[in-house]
Design goal:
Blueprint (H helix, E strand, L loop, with lengths): L1 E9 L2 E10 L5 E5 L6 H8 L7 E6 L2 E2 L5 H5 L2 E4 L11 H6 L14 H13 L15 H14 L4 E5 L7 H18 L2 E6 L2 H7 L2 E6 L2 E6 L1 H4 L2 H8 L1 E7 L5 E8 L5
Parallel strand pairs: 3-8, 3-9, 6-7, 7-8
Antiparallel strand pairs: 1-2, 1-4, 4-5, 9-10, 11-12
Amino acid sequence: MEVRDLSYRYDEKDVLRKVSFELRPGEVLGILGPNGCGKTTLLKNLNRNLTPHGGCVLLDGSDIEEMTKKDIARRVASVPQSNEIRFAFTVREIVEMGRMPFQESFRGNSSADESIVDEALRKTGIEGMASRYINTMSGGERQRVIIARALAQTPSIILMDEPTLHLDISMQFDVLDLVHSLSRSEGLSVVIVSHDLPMVARYCDRIILIHGKEVYATGTPMEVLTPDNMRVVFDIDARFEIDENGRPTVRLFGSCRNRN
């Protein structure tokens, strides 16, 4: 996927201006920035849920504005910010919805579809929950179901909007460990929108930092999460570090506004 000079506005107010980047095969790419900076708007442009006012999004060299929604869904899956599902679907029924882009009208799943669903359940570790109703599950369990549904689309790209927003801390690590592992084992390209600096530093191969409606910095977590960049974009004192387990993280010292 390649994004070229993408611009978007709401009611004549610019939200994004000339954003350009490339998503590489098999990488986890973080889109990072403070609340209201246009991260979710950018994500919605990547699967044609929104149409840019300038520039374009290319998928395998083709402008997604010239593709059908079904063709896009066969290559790009989404994990939305909210995983609340009010209806009493079973886990398996939810995951089976991932096969819809491949089905003809009024025809159910084929045996090949069912095998793909089985594999998605297995990869996310929820095969034993297939008959449970999703509205009885915890937030972390539901998130695994939504990821399994995305995997059932057999995509090359997964877009994730704040995937750990409503999860407790231990479940945040579990979900992102799963996503990172699937990226490595399946060759998936994953885009994670977040404002959680330590999590993005830990799990993303590259980061795009959004500030002032534009790409402010791009590169590896070490290159992007500098004290100066975090001070300018987030108004915080923070430092990129390698923890005692050899994993990258960000240590937060507080708001710049509260300095003595």
